[in-house]
Amino acid sequence: MEITSTLFAAKAIYIGLIFAITLGVAAYSTYGERIVAAWMQDRVGPDRAGPFGIFQPLADAVKMFMKEDFIPANSSKWLFIAWPCLSMLTALLTSAVVPFGDKLDLGGGIEMDLQGIDVNIGILWVFGIVSLGVYGILVGGWASNNKYSLLGAIRAASQNISYELAMGLSIIAILMMTGSLSTKVIVETQQNGAGFLSWNIWSQPIGFVIFIVCAFAECNRTPFDLPECETELIGGYHTEYSSMKLGFYLFSEYINMFVSGAVMATLYFGGYDYPFNEVVEAQFGQNIAALVGVGALMGKALFFVFVFMWVRWTLPRFRYDQLMNLGWTGLIPISMFNVVWTGLSILIPTTFNLPAWASIVVSWSGIGVLLIGLIIYHGATSKKKTVALAH
């Protein structure tokens, strides 16, 4: 009974810490976005709220809390209030199955996984919660009773549905290699003694590119930020929102960025694995090695947050027809090809008794085959367009 209560208390403290860290990272991601934008545009950036502007997120929070909480007269009041909260809730719940580190030794033979919930369908949990998140946008835009909000909400729903298919197919390739839906097992499979060479990025380069492109679309980030396109829709689905309800929508985007980075690190970059993990554990003990692993995962996730920001200030926004064409006629066929090619990369080395690195060679050769196919397809479609124009 004592062991159970100790483990429960430790797990509750851990979950509270993860939520607090996630919120803190999201808050300072807004500051980081300004710093990255200023750096890329050769500007100063925030420099008034404390030294180097480090208190800018706190100033933003105070501003949001102090603004008038406006509710349009013709809106569906309770839905208008509730659905920003749902967006925030689903953004936080996604991190529950991410293994942030290995086991901690609590003493007395008690060990605790640094993971909110260790379920054998962790990837399905992520996709289920992400799918619920679109309702927060869709219903929030509809409840505003504003045509711009409604158009932004419809765009968000269509975009998420389109890109979730390609993202799901890219995950199938990972499942074929690991044989499990558990995020913990996926990380452990990448820790087979070969160091970072055993990470899934080496055997799934096409799948990773598909996943990160879909992550941009799922997070409504540039160049896929059509649901909140200012030039066409004012503010998109959150046009009528103010005060902290608007803050919840904006904040959930940054939480989704961080969690997406953590999920990509888990699936493709070894999660909390890092080089010389065994050496650190032998020299400093299990707990220090686990905490260093937490730092490694956080570093990988924050790197992807930086990539989200980097792309925002580099690429222009797509047109909506380009966005939908990329999802349906581009990424989904490439994802299906990746699933088939992953099957070949597993089958060929097994059939011919080849070493493990042969699977990686087959996987990377798929990039060449894919590029050749895309060139042939592009040539054929260009020829058809030329003939049509000639007629």
Describe this structure in words.
- There is one protein chain.
- The chain is mostly helical and 391 residues long.
- The chain has one domain.
- 70% of the residues lie in helices and 3% in strands.
- It has 13 helices and two strands, in the order H-H-H-E-E-H-H-H-H-H-H-H-H-H-H.
- Strands 1-2 form a two-stranded antiparallel ribbon.
- Helix 7 (205-218) packs antiparallel against helix 12 (320-351), helix 9 (243-268) crosses helix 11 (286-312) and helix 10 (277-284) packs across helix 11.
- The longest helix is centred in the N-terminal third of the chain and has 39 residues, at 2-40.
Unreliable runs:
none
Order of strands side by side in the largest beta sheet?
Answer: 1-2
Helix fraction bin: 55-70%
**Rg estimate, integer Å:** 23 Å
Strand segment tally: 2
Mean pLDDT: 85
Structural class: mainly alpha
> What is the strand content?
under 5%
Q: Any idea how many domains?
A: 1
Describe the sheet with the most strands: 2 strands, antiparallel
Morphology call: globular
Tally of alpha and pi helices: 13
Distance, first to last CA: 83 Å
Q: How would you spell out the order of helices and strands? A: HHHEEHHHHHHHHHH
